[in-house]
Task: structure prediction
Amino acid sequence: MELDTIDVQILQLLTDNARMQWKDIGAEIHMTGQAVGNRIKKLEDQGVIKAYSVIVDELKLGLTYTAFIIVHMNTANHQPFIRFIQEREEVMEAHRVSGEGCYHLKVQVFSQEQLNQLLNEILDHGNYILNLSIQEIKHQHPVMAQRKRMKQ
Result:
């Protein structure tokens, strides 16, 4: 599909602010809001505009690092470790697993220092393997997943 200069201008404005009103876009490119809306609808129908999204500033939320930690226990007595992870707010999920390691943890921390402190405390219970998340590909709330299964 060939885009003309007006389509490109609309796309640039929407890229900067996907919530921009059609009339405001029209004022920028000297068109009516309705004409802009028609062009946007055409771009959506042709698949040029696939979706509108929200980009969250994780620093403002206070959660900047997501890590996955595989823990190999030093002892057969896991109760002190279980109490430890239950008390830690940065441990979002903890699973006892078969296969690689004894436990898999999902943690979210504010800083590298906080992660280092947690890792040092884990060493009191066992050894670990650390994996840092560099991009979340999919996140689905368990309730929503259950609703989808129930509809099938």
